[in-house]
Amino acid sequence: MESKPFAGKVVLVTGGGRGIGRAIALYFAARGADVVINFVRNQEHAEEVAAQVEALGQRALMVRANVGYPEEIEKLFARIAETFEVLDIFISNAATGFNRPGMQQKVSGWDYTMNVNARAFLFAAQKAVPLMEKRGGGHMVAITSPGSQRVLPDYIAVGASKAALEALTRYLAVELAPKNIIVNAVAPGIVLTDALKHFAALSDPQVIERAIVNTPAGRLVTPEDVAGVVGFLCSPEAAMIRGQVIVVDGGYTLITPG
């Protein structure tokens, strides 16, 4: 019989309709959790994930909400409270970005990137805490990026937002520890998603091959690799890991790409 370590748990995954978010949602559902799938534009993909969650025997709640806006965060958590009354795990995965050099950044793009990628984690955490307290604790995991520390081309706004996200992870880990809420972050490297394949097909067919060559593990990270680490951080075995950023990149950032 397959183990269900998250049986009876309720998990929120923002940006849960595609890529890493989808893999995380299905990881928890396969292990017994009910899943809240937050999305903004891609309703069809969110519906597919919800159907897969239900096929695994779990409840799925889809909520359209743009976490870049506080009122949308309010709506998201109102739906969670109405449907489940509690929350055990919050995965802050939704992200956006305007990739252009610093000298070409616009105020609107900067603000929106910071709001979705960093600010949303703080104010969603405020809403998640009361629902987790009903359970006697919980877990939060933010999905960040090695670009928070390394300078990547045209990544200045996203990189800064991810650096802020990692700082929030540390501060919340300390502040929420007395409430038995464990907070960490995961920084995936180059992940083999449909978006990457699409970019490669349109712009640079060699990008995937080059990335594999420069990855000591000999392959790219998959969304399922990331989901497994996220799941571990939400397990009892990881209870003493607090405020950390776990890099999942097959060793890519340990070497200088050729």
Automatic annotation (TrEMBL):
Gene3D superfamilies: NAD(P)-binding Rossmann-like Domain. Its EC number is 1.3.1.104. It is an enzyme of class 1 (oxidoreductase). It holds the Pfam family adh_short_C2. The keyword Oxidoreductase applies. Keywords: Oxidoreductase. InterPro entries: NAD(P)-bd_dom_sf, SDR_fam. CDD domains: ChcA_like_SDR_c (cd05359). GO terms for molecular function: enoyl-[acyl-carrier-protein] reductase (NADPH) activity. NCBIfam families: PRK07231.1, PRK08063.1. PANTHER family: OXIDOREDUCTASE, SHORT-CHAIN DEHYDROGENASE/REDUCTASE FAMILY (AFU_ORTHOLOGUE AFUA_5G02870) (PTHR43639), SHORT-CHAIN DEHYDROGENASE_REDUCTASE FAMILY PROTEIN (PTHR43639:SF1). Belongs to the short-chain dehydrogenases/reductases (SDR) family. This is Enoyl-[acyl-carrier-protein] reductase FabL. The gene is fabL.
